[in-house]
Amino acid sequence: MCSFVQKYPMALKDLLALPGIEAMVLQSLGCQVAWPTLKGVKAYAQRFGHSESAIRTGLSRANKAGLLQVQDSRQVALGQDLQGFVRYFLKEPFARDTFSLVLTRLSASQATARYHLHDALTRLGYVKMLPNAYLRYGADPLALEAVLQDKSLQQYLYAFETSGPLPRQLEAQLEQIYDLQAWAERLNHFSTDLSLFLAQAPPDSPEGYLNYLFARSSFHKNIMTCAPYLPEAYFAEVRLLKASYQRLGQMAHTHHAVFCQLYQRVFG
Questions:
Q1: CA 228, CA 176: separation in Å to the nearest integer?
Q2: b or e along 155-167 (b: 16 or more beta carbons within 10 Å of the residue's beta carbon)?
Q3: Is residue 206 a contact partner of residue 266, using CB atoms and an 8 Å limit?
Q4: Global pTM?
Q5: What is the mean pLDDT of each run of 10 residues along the chain (268 residues)?
Q6: Please, is 55 exposed, middle or buried when counting C-beta atoms within 10 Å of its C-beta (0-12, 13-18, 19+)?
Q7: Contact criterion met (CB below 8 Å) for 137 and 233
């Protein structure tokens, strides 16, 4: 198996959702595509070493959890929650230069709501800095509240936006909160690994397209929603994060016509 796949792996449940996410990406670019076929989803997961039995179990669990919806044993649609996350990131320009601070208000007895709220905020790139406080740079509080409203979680938080500098005491804690030194090294390695992986096959070939899909989703899961997204004044290596994001996004726009054809061939 390719070293990129080994170094930046994807859980089976995420691999199974990947074709459906691609359907929404292509639809946002004007391509008329349906949800991926069950056959195509299974073949994609098998490409990365998962057995038929593991895939069947993974699809069953994802279906029961609402992550995916297996329709008439023919297509695999994304669940409503996952569709909400995809729509959020499709609209996320990463162009705002303000910090978003979220304060949560939950009692000790509201453990389930606390878990779901933490999961949602973490997926959207927020970092927990205090027991009831989350921070993110470049986020839109209104867009956040729209996602949480669909999950009936918006009632548990207050969202603020600030364009001023962070308090000095908080600035001094950013290294610890975000683990900046380790992430600087990881982003440098990822940038090199991504280039080598994408260069293995032309993007307009079936192999190149499937590699691109894995690279984009792996980047989103392992890097973009985990790595420190901060102003360069706080974290210079954020430019590597932005470069990878822009590169993969530009590939979707540049090759969307051929990607639409390849999607139909592989997942149609």
A1: 11
A2: ebbebeeeeeebe
A3: yes
A4: 0.89
A5: 87 95 95 96 93 94 92 90 88 78 88 89 88 87 81 86 84 91 96 96 94 96 91 94 93 94 95
A6: buried
A7: no
